[in-house]
């Protein structure tokens, strides 16, 4: 193990970096033109479509400038559309387009497979504890 990985904060950061790189590579291998962060936004919209940018940013735990860029790229790629909200021409809600629905199951299969690969040597009890610790850290930092 690399010496720097004895630091838990560095280990957590490097693990997430490796996870994002691995997921991006798998998406590309499968012919998908999205990034893991774009998938986060699409996944959040699948849970509840039609939020405005502020609501979507909050639900994705991203800042407003980050979400704007991601939505811009998703819109350009045909996955989402900005739709004017009634009563306020300046406000938009973000809605999924058919192209997003077309990849939903496939991306779900890929991410489920990645999860299975990542946890194949872990027991259900270990995974439960790991998730509990991650959630506790996440809540503490947010």
Topology at a glance:
Layout: H1 8-29, H2 36-47, H3 53-60, H4 64-76, E1 80-85, E2 88-96, H5 98-119, H6 124-141
Antiparallel strand pairs: 1-2
Helix pairs in contact: 3-4
Report on the architecture of this protein.
This protein has 142 residues and is mainly α. Helix content is 67%, strand content 11%. The chain is built from six helices and two strands, in the order ααααββαα. Strand 1 and strand 2 (88-96) form a beta hairpin.
Count of helix runs: 6
The strands making up the biggest β-sheet line up spatially as 1-2
Structural class: mainly alpha
Dominant shape: globular
Rounded mean pLDDT is 94
The biggest sheet amounts to: 2 strands, antiparallel
Question: Could you provide a short overview of the structure?
Answer:
This protein is mostly helical and 142 residues long.
Keywords:
single chain; 142 residues; mainly alpha; two-stranded antiparallel ribbon; globular
């Amino acid at each position: 193990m690399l010496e720097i990985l004895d630091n838990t904060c560095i280990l957590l950061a490097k693990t997430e970096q490796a996870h994002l790189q691995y997921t991006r590579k798998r998406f590309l291998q499968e012919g998908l033109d999205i990034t893991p962060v774009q998938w986060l936004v699409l996944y959040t919209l699948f849970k509840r479509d039609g939020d405005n940018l502020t609501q979507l940013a909050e639900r994705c735990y991203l800042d407003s400038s980050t979400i704007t860029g991601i939505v811009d790229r998703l819109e350009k790629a045909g996955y989402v559309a900005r739709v004017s909200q009634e009563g306020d021409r300046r406000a938009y809600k973000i809605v999924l387009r058919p192209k997003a629905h077309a990849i939903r199951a496939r991306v779900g299969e890929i991410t489920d497979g990645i999860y299975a690969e990542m946890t194949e040597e872990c027991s259900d009890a270990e995974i439960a504890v790991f998730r509990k610790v991650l959630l506790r850290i996440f809540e503490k930092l947010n």
